[in-house]
Amino acid sequence: MTERPYVIDEMISAKAIAARIEELCRDIHKEYGDTDKLIVVGLLRGSFVFIADLARELDLPVEVDFMEVSSYGDAMESSREVRILKDLRGQIEGRDVLVVEDIVDTGHTLNHVMALLRSRNPHRLRSIALLDKPTRREVDFKSSWIGFEIPDEFVVGYGIDFAQRNRNLPFIGSVRFTDPD
Ligand code: IMP
Hints:
The protein has helices spanning 14-32, 48-57, 108-118, and strands spanning 6-12, 38-44, 62-69, 84-86, 96-104, 124-132, 145-149, 155-156, 172-177. The strands form two sheets. The protein has a six-stranded mixed sheet, sandwiched between helices. The chain has a three-stranded antiparallel sheet with strand order 1-9-8. The mean pLDDT is 93. It has one domain: 3-Layer(aba) Sandwich (Rossmann fold), CATH 3.40.50.2020. By secondary structure, the chain is an alpha/beta fold. The two termini are 16 Å apart. The structure holds inosinic acid.
């Protein structure tokens, strides 16, 4: 299949992301400032850049773990079914946990992951997503913290891909197809 040509328009600059992460970390600190050790759980693969910046900005004792769940495959539409491809390495019972996601879109992914982790009886469980597309929501899910609300556009960069590409862009950009169709 030949790829449709597209360009990427910058939507959120690297500087704006860094400034927002500083603000978010101040808020997280207010809630988790008394923790012995916060387990920061990144959802692979889209959150890998966000969790790296977030974890380094957090002035708290932090442990890092990852989960991988299936969502889009290589297509631009969400498959509504959420499957766990890789589970946590560690136990979270009685622990403080912060789940880190790139985007809340329909809400199915985080809704499912949070319900699963809640069933393991953590002490405190919250979520943070860099981006939120509230107009796309199909389930009643609200993340504890959100970096930016964005319109219903397909975005890439800062860890987020389109068919596994563009994850290494330092900013968030929206995909605009340039073919006549
Ligand atoms: P949800 O289950 O529909 O909320 O989907 C969340 C997941 O869909 C995110 O973790 C992303 O992997 C993916 N996703 C949603 N919107 C976009 C986008 O604009 N670009 C790339 N991936 C997206």
